[in-house]
Amino acid sequence: MDTDLQKIIIITGPTASGKTKLAIRLAQKVGGEIISADSRQVYRGMDIGTGKDLQEYGNIKYHLIDILKAGEEFSVSKFQAEALKVLGRIRKRGAVPIICGGTGHYLKALIEDYSFEEPETDLQYTLDLEDKSREELYEELKQLQLWEQHHWEDDSKRRIARAIEKAKIPTKKQESQIRFQEHYLPQIYYTAPERSLLRRKIKKRLIERLEEGMVQEVENLLQQGIPYERLERYGLEYKWVSRYVHKQIASDHMIEKLHTEICRFAKRQVTFIRYLEKNGHSMIPITSMDTFLEEATLWLEEKTKGPTQPTLIQ
User: Fold this and answer.
1) Which keywords does this Swiss-Prot/TrEMBL entry list (predicted)?
2) Annotated binding site
């Protein structure tokens, strides 16, 4: 294990809670570079629906944004591998890594050093899973603490069974893999807006994105040859706007469904924060920009070589 761990800041929390602004302000103050932990911001051309706001970054260096064409495959294992590479480069430059995003299973895989080697095969177990009803598979997901990490209702039974199989069947550990916990010491901060306030922010942002051209963005993606089914898989804005573009739903219905689904997504993100707390991760709520900047800067400046506990924001 590295005796001098690289300190990094992680900012997570529900959608529409201001994570990016916090990351940018901190990066400006401490000489940081931002790594996006957002499963959809990796795609070029998916800007309004994912809230990239790249102009806000100014001269701040950012990573894992606009690295793929829309429609290409990206996964949690690829995120883990790419994030570890980027962290290594940031460390060599002497900058402060700031990971910002709300894709919980990406963060979990990174900080808990998930192994993504192919699982040992168990044909009978696989067949048993595929024979189960969706309700039985959902129950297994809940028992494995996977239910709140993804919108499983949109996935096929085969994909759900594969996720359960990966979680339950032991994997072959890749000894040469870089281990996050051997090199990095994270401090996790999370945004914690009041629920009714967050719902209002989500609605306001949704209307703003539609006014900025989110429908046109989806139409452009379809014209570029991105399959309708792929946009459905991207969920939320891309799913419901695609249905509107294909005249499956009316505008009012699209807005209503989108608001409901985004609020549900935000609730799952909050549940993920509770998961991290229950599993021993030090979590600090952000109650104001100034307090966060002060606390995070002080923690980064401490010359310790082991885990430390910053003063909890009251």
Assistant:
1) ATP-binding, Magnesium, Nucleotide-binding, Transferase, tRNA processing
2) 13-20
Q: CA–CA separation, 77 vs 170, rounded Å? A: 16
- Find out whether 269 and 14 touch, Cβ atoms under 8 Å: yes
Take residue 66 and report the two structure tokens written for it. 């606009």
Joined together, the tokens standing for residue 55 give 């102009």
Q: Assess contact for 9 and 300: CB atoms under 8 A.
A: yes
Q: What's the predicted TM-score (pTM) here?
A: 0.81
Please classify residue 6 by burial: count the beta carbons closer than 10 Å to its beta carbon, then call 0-12 exposed, 13-18 middle and 19+ buried: middle
Residue with tokens 């957002």: 38
Residue-wise pLDDT tens digits, 53-107: 899 999 999 999 999 999 998 989 999 999 999 999 999 999 999 999 999 999 9
Which residues are part of a known binding site for substrate? Answer: 15-20
Question: Which residues belong to the annotated binding site for ATP?
Answer: 13-20
Domain 6-115+173-301 sits in which CATH superfamily? P-loop containing nucleotide triphosphate hydrolases (3.40.50.300)
Amino acid identity, position 125: Y
